[in-house]
Design a protein that fits this description.
187 residues, alpha/beta, seven-stranded mixed sheet, 7 helices
Length: 187
């Protein structure tokens, strides 16, 4: 079981935050939603308020297998402005562990120089924020230990790709079928 931390800021994109949490938990992974706001409650770009599992200052990221960022605006900008998170991402990535971001959130990796020479995707129109990356225009792109997703419609394929990395193809395929995702892609 992987230990995954997803960082939540004011203005996150609802589906990009919650679909991966749902899929990864159903797939047996431990995922902790971490607020970077100082409050356990965080409000999405569309006015949905949710209670996170932990506060940034209270988590020890040493045991993390993956650090994950949902997209949305101004959520991605707020994530990028949090120095503690930025430092944690660099330390985690430089130690050889995985990082993931979807929609506008790859901007955080770009601003840290983590996308230099990497293939990555993001929400169309945000590609200039992925400094140094080759923009793939794909729903999901995995290059080494960096996983990126394009936007809201990519939330499910992004989450299944992450699940497949940590739990294997059979588990991901079984969950795709159980959640009827295969019915969407078969048509």
């Amino acid at each position: 079981m992987a230990k995954i931390y997803q960082f939540m800021a004011e203005g996150f994109e609802d589906v990009e935050a919650l679909a991966p949490v749902d899929i990864l938990r159903r797939g047996g992974q431990e995922i902790v939603m971490v607020s970077i706001t100082g409050s356990e409650y965080v409000t999405s770009a569309h006015g949905v308020t949710l209670k996170t599992d932990a506060l940034f200052d209270d988590v020890d990221l040493a045991d993390a297998d993956l650090l994950m960022l949902p997209g949305g605006l101004p959520g991605s900008t707020n994530l990028n402005a949090h120095e503690g998170l930025r430092e944690a991402l660099v330390k985690h990535y430089e130690s050889g562990k995985r990082i993931a971001a979807i929609c506008a959130a790859p901007m955080v990796f770009g601003s840290l120089g983590l996308l230099e020479g990497k293939r990555a995707t993001c929400y169309p129109g945000c590609e200039s924020t992925m400094t140094g990356a080759e923009y793939t225009k794909q729903l999901v792109t995995i290059d080494g230990n960096i996983i990126t997703g394009e936007g809201p419609a990519a939330a499910f394929p992004y989450a299944y790709a992450i699940l497949e990395i940590f739990a294997g193809k059979a588990v991901a395929d079984q969950l795709r079928e159980g959640m009827m995702f295969n019915h969407l892609t078969a048509k």
